[in-house]
Amino acid sequence: MTGATATSLPSLFALSAEPDRAALVVSLHDVAPATRPAVEEMVRALSRHHVPVCSLLVVPNYHHGGSFGEDRPFVRWLQELEEQGHEIVIHGYFHQRPRRHGESLPEKFFTRLYTNDEGEFYDLDYDEAFRRITRAREEFAAAGLTPRGFIAPAWLLGSAAERAAAEAEMEYTTRLTEVRDLRSGENFPARTLVYSVRSGWRRAASLAWNGLLAYRLGGAPLARVSLHPPDLRHPEIWEQVLRLTDRLVENRTATTYRDWIAERRTRSVA
Fold it and tell me: 16-47 b/e with 16+ CB inside 10 Å = b?
């Protein structure tokens, strides 16, 4: 995949959206054969709530459980989703980071407490990051899929790994508070709603914070909702997800990161 090829693709968002209408991207993280049942249910529910397309963050070898490409029904399912307008995104490679001796307190906070040992690209060096990203891109291409974005697990992407993603010809990445066009280097501030469900207090805090954040989004050009398969197991969380999504989509066009980036590029050269 070359940058020129990626840019030349038409943006479904640009073709279908009203001029200057704000956007909503709902992303489903940690997509893998093991999480497919939950993700399928989420996709169906979101479609019923007027979110016909999502950005699906697929892990090539989730927790070292085997390459996604070995599961042919899973690959066919991803192909069908891509044909329907959903986006396939590379989401790390293993989605795990081994603990290391002598880690600082900030390192322990971000890689253990914040992300439960899943910050794979938090401090990965350039060579290894480039190797994993290019390997993932090749595996997706072999499966007949066309990912254009790379998003690190937990949005923890070190500077060396970001450079590797750009030089591996990924078009964009995202972090908790922004979307970054890796070609132009332009950042688009856009904080995402996301839930932490590992404990009761985390769920309570997520419900309160996301309820407030959804109101604060106001006229922001891009609203983001980032979901994980365990969110579905908690009725109070899932009910709020659908309620807030209903509210956001009233005045926004549901799209994908790929199409939103393409639309922004089109505007910048118009």
Answer: ebeeeebbbbbbbbbbbbbbbebbeebbeebe
Q: pTM here?
A: 0.88
Q: What is the tens place of the pLDDT at every residue in 186-222? A: 999 999 999 999 899 999 999 999 999 999 988 899 9
The candidate with the shortest Cα–Cα distance to 222, out of 265, 246, 188, is 188
> Which range among 2-6, 119-123, 201-205 shows the weakest confidence by mean pLDDT?
2-6
> In 10 A of CB 15, how many CB atoms?
9
Alpha helices in the chain (DSSP H): 3-8, 12-16, 36-48, 72-83, 105-108, 126-142, 159-167, 200-216, 235-249, 257-269
Report the 10 Å Cβ neighbour count for 186. Answer: 15
Q: Rounded to an integer, what distance in angstroms lies between the CA atom of residue 170 and that of residue 162?
A: 10
